[in-house]
Every structure is written in structure tokens, then in C-alpha cells.
Amino acid sequence: QKESMDSDIVIIGGGPGGYVAAIEGAKQGAKVILIEKEELGGTCLNRGCIPTKALVRSSEVYELVKNSAEYGVFNSSSSYDFSKIIARKNDIVNELVGGIDYLLSKNNVTVLKGSGEILDKNTVFVKEKNKEITINTNNIIIATGSKAFVPPIKGAASKNIVTSKEMLNLSELPQKIIIVGGGVIGMEFAFICNALDTDVSVVEFAEDILVALDEDVRTEIREIAIEKGIKIYTSSKVEEIIDTEEGQSIVVFDKNGTKGYITGDKVLMSVGRVPFYGDIDLEKLGIDLNEKGRGIKVNSKMQTTVDNIYAIGDVTNIIQLAHVASHQGIIAIENILGKDVEANYEVVPSAIFTSPEIASVGIHEKAAMEQGISVKTGKFPFGANGKALTQGERRGFVKIITEEATGVILGGSIIGPHATDLIHEVAVAIQNKLTAEQLINTIHAHPTTAEAVHEALLATTPKGAIHF
Ligand code: FAD
User: Fold this and answer.
1) What distance in angstroms lies between residue 431's CA and the mean position of ligand 1's atoms?
2) Which residues line ligand 1 (CB under 6 A)?
3) What is the rounded (10 degree) CA torsion for 386, 389, 395, 401?
4) Residue closest to 8 by CA, chosen among 152, 109, 128, 114
5) In terms of CB atoms within 10 Å, which of 128, 192, 293, 446 comes out highest?
6) Is 146 marked as a binding-site residue?
């Protein structure tokens, strides 16, 4: 059965980039068609942000139950059922996918389930079940996301190798896991598995885990990870994976010329993600890749080298975060609908769901120094914050960077309880060029972990913090 449709905007890919763009476009009155070949919500909702955080929560609850005596609560037997943890995660994902479906239909977005193919700059083709649909459209947004990168090392075909996608659907956790790559995804899984009693080794090529973080934060999380029993091998290049007759795998790595070997039941490859072009023939369409050849090239309006075709989210490989994909989606829609707006990445908070959590925004102390900016640094430990103590979460700190001459807030890093929520006060301040003084003059409720932010702000001034 053949059908044809007309639209203002066709969006290919229903992740946080694509579905947010679709809703925004429809809200502004455009006729929008969203094409998704798998599940609405994309990687983020089905295989990324949300399912990992469901697992983080289960692992935290289990850890809390194991250590409940500290709170005067006794629990004679603590155990977990991984299949129930996965089932809970699936329920949350399904609820949210259903929610997106509802929102799209409420906003009159037409959703087509199939693989979108761009025939030319005004024609998109999709096969939905046994219907062949040709869409005539004024604009196209490519939001096809990314996929895990598995490096072509010897033994990479081992059946024990998994990516984050498979990790989220294991029937049980392995006794021993080796995580190759100590970035955000790798370290989140390291803390989840460790809390759930799996023996964890992380092998990282760089000189440290989570290299993009502020140095103090990195040191803190590394120390906490090691205290919890996570083994970390840095400056270590994985060379080969050898399967044993007993069904395990040996990861062979080179650390400054010396070989190391770790044996485990599963090997999680978390060395990065590469753009996924959704089988769209970019070359034929005249859509260029960026300078590195990884990711669709876009200008600040999210326009590709073909003027009515836009690209947003992980496929552009600018910053691989869900909230950046959504921001870019809105920017693309605004430009398509006649406004003149540019994507701005100066104030993008990043959140890492290790235990404790980590968040940062703006510039780090070292980067400021490298850029020749004279800064003041204020630091306040959660160990001196009443709320954190009542929560039993005394590790970590808030660190704020201000411009020395003006007191304008330039950056913040938080490691500790609710870090990923607390960071937004700092983000709003940076976005609006607020000074430390302005935030200090805002009364912070007591007792809250937000008081640690207040105190770190005070610590950037000559007066210093009150409680430390
Ligand atoms: P995606 O979410 O990847 O969506 C792309 C969609 O396009 C997919 O649904 C795909 O099926 C569809 N598609 C592809 N080709 C076609 C085609 N031809 N036709 C139709 N449909 C097509 N980010 C955060 O901000 N916070 C986190 O805590 C976080 N945790 C993560 C944890 C993990 C384990 C992973 C893997 C990622 C995590 N991310 C996190 C990153 C986040 O998931 C991505 O940045 C985000 O999903 C990118 O959104 P997107 O819309 O660009 O692409």
C-alpha cells in the first residue's frame, strides 16, 4: 500500500533531540511528522539516562539496607533479585515511553514507526509495516543519535563483551566485571556493580578516570571508588581479550611497557559512542561531516550543509548529552520557523550518577588559569553540612570559581549528595552573570545541602565560610 503525506518538518529519530523538537514545532503550529524505527525516547530513555538511573537507585537502596545499622535500623538479611531490579527499570522506562507517546499525540505530532530514508532534500520515505509512505516536506531534522564504539582490538568478538545496552538487560550480574573505559558510562556502571557486590576492575587508557572533571573532584571520586573496592588501572591500554576454557575472559593491557592481566566474567566496553547516521546517505545528499569526520557538520543554527536539513543531538557529536540534544532541537525548530537563534554551549551542566553524585558547570579552576583569568576559589565540604550528616552522606564538597576582579561566578563543581540537582543554582548564576555576592544575599533554607553551595560562595569572598 502506497501513501503520500505533506509536512512542514520531518524529524528522523525520536530520542530527546527528536521528540522534543517535534513537540516544540507542533506547539508553534507547524505540521510535524516524527519517524522512529525503535522506541520513542531513543537511547536516553530506553538504553541510557533513565534505565541506568533506575539501576543506580536499586544499588543505592541495597547499599543503604546493607549499612542500615549505622542509622539504628537493623535488617538481618539483605539480598537482591537482579531480575526484579531489571523489571522495575523496565516499568519506569515503559511508563515514560508511554508518556512521550501521549504528549506527541496531544500536540498533534504524526508519529510513523519505521526507518526514515531521505530521498532528496524535500522527500522522505518510510516503510511502516506494509505501508510505503512518501512524505513531501519543507524541512528535515536528522536526530538519529549514536551507538557504542567497540574498538577493533584482538578478541573483540568475545561473547563476554557487552556494551551499556546489554548491561541493562542482563539476567544476572557477573561475579567479576572488567570495565574498559573509566568515563561517565563506565564509572556509573562501576559504582552500580560494586554496590551490588560484583568485583569491579576499571581499565582506563588516560592517566585518570573521568578526565574532564576538576582535579579535586577527580581525586575525591577516585579515592571513594578505591575505598569501596573498585580496582582502577589508569594509563593502561587494552591490547587483547582472551577467552578461557572456563568461560571467562582475560583482559590484557599495557601500562607503560608492562603487561597486566585481569580475569573476569564479563567485559563492559565503555570507551565512547560514535554518531549513528541511521543509514542515511549523507554523501548523496551533500551533507558534510565535521572536521574530525565524526558527526554531521552543523552551523550554530543546527543547519547542515544542505540549507533545509538540520541535525541535532548525538549525531552531531558536539556534546553527547540528552539535555544538549533537546536544546539543539529547540534551536533547530526556532530557526526553521523563522527566528534567528544560535545554540550556546557555555552553560551546560553535566551530571554523573556515581555514588556520590558529581556535577559541574562552567569552567574549572585549571582551565581558568590556563586562560589567564584570575579567579577566586571557594570550597565547602559536605562533612560540615548538617543535612548531609543526617543523610549519612558526608563525603564530597562544593567548589565555586569566581572572577577575582568582579566576583562573577564562572564555574562550579559539586561532588556529594544531590550534586546533580544542586548544580542548577550555579548554572542559573553563570547564565545570568551573577556575582557570588548576589547569591550569598539570597537566603538558603536550613537544613539543606544547598547551604553547602552558599558556604562555598562565601568561601570565595574575603569573609570566608561561616561553618568551616
Ligand atoms: P538518541 O537518544 O540516540 O535517539 C536517536 C533515535 O533515532 C533512536 O531512537 C533511533 O532508534 C532513531 N533512529 C535512528 N535512525 C533512524 C532512522 N533512519 N529512522 C527512524 N529512526 C531512527 N545523557 C544525559 O544527559 N544524562 C545521562 O544520565 C545519560 N546517561 C547515559 C547512559 C548511557 C548508558 C548512555 C548510552 C547514554 C547516556 N546519556 C546520558 C547520553 C544520552 O542518552 C544521549 O546524549 C541522548 O540520548 C542523545 O539524544 P539523541 O536524540 O541525539 O539520540
Assistant:
1) 26
2) 12-18, 35-38, 42-44, 47-49, 52, 115-116, 143-146, 164, 185, 276, 278-279, 313-315, 320-323, 325
3) -10
4) 109
5) 192
6) yes
Q: Are the C-beta atoms of residues 423 and 361 closer than 8 Å to each other?
A: yes
CA-CA distance, 387 to 383, in Å (whole number)? 10
Active site residues: 446
C-alpha cell at 138: 519543507
- Site to substitute for ligand 1 among 39, 117, 144, most atoms within 8 A of C-beta: 144
C-alpha grid cell, residue 161: 563483551
Q: Which residues, listed in sequence order, are joined to residue 133 by a DSSP beta bridge?
A: 3, 126
**Whose C-alpha lies nearest to ligand 1, atom 15?**
278
From first to last of the 468 residues of the chain, give the pLDDT tens digit.
999 999 999 999 999 999 999 999 999 999 999 999 999 999 999 999 999 999 999 999 999 999 999 999 998 889 999 999 999 999 999 999 999 999 999 999 999 999 999 999 999 999 998 899 999 999 999 999 999 998 999 999 999 999 999 999 999 999 999 999 999 999 999 999 999 999 999 999 999 999 999 999 999 999 999 999 999 999 999 999 999 999 999 999 999 999 999 999 999 999 999 999 998 999 999 999 999 999 999 999 999 999 999 999 999 999 999 999 999 999 999 999 999 999 999 999 999 999 999 999 999 999 999 999 999 999 999 999 999 999 999 999 999 999 999 999 999 999 999 999 999 999 999 999 999 999 999 999 999 999 999 999 999 999 999 999
d(CA 177, CA 297): 37
Query: Cell 575472559 maps to which residue?
Result: 249
The pTM score is 0.97
Residue 147: burial class (beta carbons within 10 Å; 0-12, 13-18, 19+): middle
Residues 6+ away with beta carbon under 8 Å from 27: 107
